[in-house]
């Protein structure tokens, strides 16, 4: 069933979703749906209730090995013989199937991740199907170039050269829990458009939509082994995939800490690697900004997905003339947001993904208070069921405080005044991260002067936190290596082969 109106309440879980939750989901290995070889399963939870939601297979090194071998075999099979236009058609089929099963996928995602069903419908389903369509278009536009060369050996010889773009091979894709289906598609779509095969390892907290995606891949006409899905932990399945000699490229989205482990392993094996990591994005707000945008800045720029977004604008730097007004407006806007289950789209703050993450975010808030920052909202700890955290805003925050430097990944942000714009940009750049940033001004000169000075892979102006399939996305500094989206993403999934022809 296609998605319901994005802002409509889920009053009843669809029978197809209930059935899927009751019958244990399966790994997808070489076109076969299967349990783990030793029968192990792991529980996944509903963050809104803290109760067990379903069981999934607990894949480990053995399943990863089978998946990689299936992906290697598939590289040589029907997939490699498909013409680009046929690859394109299969990806378009998959996009249609995601849409056709949209409401099931959206409900499944909200039950497993906790997020607002409105975001599940718009992003996990809507953006995923459109992202596939965008990347499907690139399948038929992969091209090399002809090159004139000046090779002088042996004397008198003539050469003509050209380049071919070829699939990099088996792609190991490791995804986080914050946008489970969408992150899987951000990796699968360009990898498949370029003719690669994939082993997907979703986050242990949120494997359900990725396992369901595996089934839809087969239904869409992807030959067996082209996409394989192994649920399991990072320490076991993730590490096994990272180290597997049959994997040619790793694409990872997750924390900077794990990204470094994966990057080091990739270098040991000379695997190609793309790392999309953490962030601590600044929003620099100038006196001349349109203050009517503040509510949207809070809801979309900062608290989208309950703040569990890598480029969330968690550090506001406000020019002195509007500082008080910003503090007051943000406190009013954020204080009025309702906290509750994602099945009701009226709730803007939904649970954190896990008990562990709830404890982490709560500890960050307590840590901010201990460091001497001033909490603006008079909210206590959440004492009901589920993994909820009430939002918090801090003022009086020094640059060296952890609440200013470390990623919280929850509904928490800081507001700091500035007098000198150059100093504001210096503070904005003063973390180890560099994923996103934004400038809020109605002055064109201010915009042009400071955009080049911000150290971030994406700089938004008068908006924040809105990516697009055609707009390169990735991190400066410790926010990552490489870019996703747009034409730039394709190069990460292709090898360049120079062909040099002696002309006799
Ligand atoms: P995480 O790093 O803990 O886990 C991400 C994935 O890595 C999971 O699938 C996990 O199982 C796996 N993993 C963990 N240890 C591993 C290991 N040793 N070897 C291989 N795989 C391993 O991150 P998370 O908590 O799931 O996600 C939140 C983080 O992701 C935040 O830091 C956030 O900023 C980042 N993120 C970044 C982007 C981006 O595009 N830059 C997007 C979303 C999330």
Give the C-level CATH assignment of the largest domain.
Answer: Alpha Beta
Sheet with most strands? 7 strands, mixed
Which regions contain 5 or more consecutive residues with pLDDT less than 50? none
- First and last CA, distance: 63 Å
Question: What small molecules does this complex bind?
Answer: nicotinamide-adenine-dinucleotide
Number of helices: 17
Find the CATH topology of the largest domain.
Answer: Aldehyde Dehydrogenase, Chain A, domain 1
Number of domains: 2
Q: Hey, roughly how much beta strand do the residues contain?
A: 15-25%
Helix content: 25-40%
Second CATH tier, the architecture of the largest domain: 3-Layer(aba) Sandwich
**CA-based gyration radius:** 24 Å
Structural class: alpha/beta
3D shape: globular
How would you portray this structure in words?
The chain is an alpha/beta fold and 504 residues long. The chain has 2 domains: 27-44 and 53-277 and 480-498, Aldehyde Dehydrogenase, Chain A, domain 1, CATH 3.40.605.10; 282-469, Aldehyde Dehydrogenase, Chain A, domain 2, CATH 3.40.309.10. It has helices at residues 15-22, 61-76, 78-81, 84-100, 102-113, 117-139, 180-193, 208-220, 234-243, 256-269, 294-302, 320-335, 355-371, 402-405, 421-428, 444-450, 486-491; strands at residues 27-29, 32-34, 41-46, 51-57, 146-148, 158-167, 170-174, 197-201, 227-229, 249-253, 272-276, 281-285, 313-319, 374-375, 392-395, 412-418, 436-440, 458-461, 480-481, 494-503. The strands form 5 sheets. A 7-stranded mixed β-sheet has the order 14-15-16-13-12-17-18, sandwiched between helices. Strands 9-8-7-10-11-19 form a 6-stranded mixed β-sheet, with helices on both faces. It has a 3-stranded antiparallel β-sheet with strand order 5-6-20, with no helix packed on it. Helix 2 (61-76) runs parallel beside helix 9 (234-243) and helix 4 (84-100) runs antiparallel to helix 6. The longest helix is centred in the first third of the chain and has 23 residues, at 117-139. The mean pLDDT is 97. The structure holds nicotinamide-adenine-dinucleotide.
